[in-house]
Amino acid sequence: LLRSDTLASWDPSVAYRLYSKIIKPLEYFLVGKKTVTVIPHGALTSLPFEMLVDSKEHATKRFWSAGDRPSYLVEKYAFAYAPSSSLLAYVRNRKHEKQPGWNFVGFGDADYTDLSKTGTPNDGAERLLSAMSSTGGATRSHDLKPLPGARKELTEIVKIVGGPTQTYFGSQATETLFKKADLTRYGYIHLATHGVILGGPGRLQQRPAVVFSLYGDKENDGFLQLGEVFGLKLNSDLVVLSSCFSQGKVDSSDSSMSQQLARAFLFAGSDALVLSLWQVNDDSTANLFIEMYRNLKEGSKAEALRLAKLSLLNQSGLSHPYYWGPFILVGDWHVRLNPAANRQPDEATRFKGVSSWRRLLTF
Description:
This protein has about 375 residues and is an alpha/beta fold. The chain is about 30% helix and about 15% strand. It contains twelve helices and eleven strands. A hairpin with an 8-residue loop joins strand 6 and strand 7 (about 205-210).
């Protein structure tokens, strides 16, 4: 699942065997249920349950084929995940002091390369770049190539969500601007950026980071790390990390780091987080999230993500789990803030006299 050039080697029989061991023995509890919350442990933290196969005819089929599509659990249930039952209870019962006044803020298509040859690298960025490995390919992972799909993704999402919204691209998509903005104003926070794993080979030496622009930020290095996430103040219904945090083989250690990042955003004040468990494709990721926001209605964030996955599953060329499987919803799947109910005319959200980004900074 890490590489698109090995899709045919994905084994439906393994997915069926896992379903038979984990879900099938207790599936009678799920009769009539639409949403399943999973609190995984160990190696299961790297498994999106949506991609388990329940079609018995695929129990012995070792290779995936577009012409012989298995039946996946995503077609029956919407899934949500949580690092622990205590944290899930805390998030569900937490009282928010105020309602976010803005629907959405997005950061994307940050400056990862100095095309003009005139930019100044962020202080400390080079040191952190040397602490990560490169995988190559048109993916949102460790190569830090430009993400043109991110700009399209955020532009289309803004059209769907409607005002009041704010987006930051290129040189404006900085870690400093993200930290200084009053993030409690936003119901939905979307980071269409790279995600990396920093550090050495040992699990305890590794840490996840969200990468903003690497040029022109005079106050921060551009890497939003785990400890810094805990220090944020959020009031959001959902944070979307449209990136990935796997490095090399997807195993329990990498996914545990994703769980750590999810825990940090939940403690910082978000009700839920969407993030990836493996390397993702730029174009399919953009399509997935555009569909998710289109399906986001009062009721279930998990169902909105499920319908978006089904839209890719039913498209020729995107039906493989590699494209729709990696993103999971962690936290409370209920919708607290319905963006459609908070739409305002464009005239009501235009600033007069002061640029929009300065209005969002806190001094």
